Amino acid sequence: MILPILIYGHPLLRKRCLEIEKFSNSNQINSLIQNMYDTMGQAQGIGLAAPQIGISLRLFIIEYNNFYKKKFKQVFINPKILKIYGSYLITKEGCLSLPNIIENIIRKNHLIIEYYDENWKKYKQHFHGLLSIIIQHEYDHIEGKFFLDHISDQKKLFLHNQLKKISAKINPNPNNRLHF
């Protein structure tokens, strides 16, 4: 089932998400994961976090085809980034919750992450390059952050009016203050 994607300005997107209990109803979790893949596919995204569809849980998915046409598809339940390191990469990032905004973001290109998959198998893995960047982006969502939190204050001021318009779709109150 395709679910609506929350847009920048929705308060849930700024909250740190809750862990999923290991013995939660697996049918519900699997249904949620499938709905997330359906939603992400329809929106033509490469990653989607549960809070983006209104669910405050520490869960995100990635489905990505790299330049070598090698497919990476993974569910991350209760992930914990253990280490971010390496050289800095500048990449263009966009977000399904921030339509029509793409910005250059600087992130380190290696990470070590611990997580469970949809079968509750535990992993501790190293990722590098673009996959590391995608994981960091999705991880930010479950921490209540956006990729815009990684840009300069000057750039935020430049984007202020555009962000205000996006946020107004959620909260039409003109006195609503934006949270960067």
Automatic annotation (TrEMBL):
Keyword Cytoplasm: no
EC number(s) per entry: 3.5.1.88
Cofactor note: Binds 1 Fe(2+) ion.
Protein keywords: Hydrolase, Iron, Metal-binding, Protein biosynthesis
One Pfam family here: Pep_deformylase
Binding, Fe cation: C95, H137, H141
Enzyme class: hydrolase
SUPFAM superfamilies documented for this protein: Peptide deformylase
InterPro entries reported for this sequence: Peptide_deformylase (IPR023635), Peptide_deformylase_sf (IPR036821)
Molecular function (Gene Ontology), one example: metal ion binding
Metal-binding as UniProt keyword: yes
Necessary cofactors: Fe(2+)
Alphabetical list of Gene3D superfamilies matching this protein: Peptide deformylase (3.90.45.10)
Record's function text: Removes the formyl group from the N-terminal Met of newly synthesized proteins. Requires at least a dipeptide for an efficient rate of reaction. N-terminal L-methionine is a prerequisite for activity but the enzyme has broad specificity at other positions.
NCBIfam families: pept_deformyl, PRK00150.1-3
Name by which UniProt lists this protein: Peptide deformylase
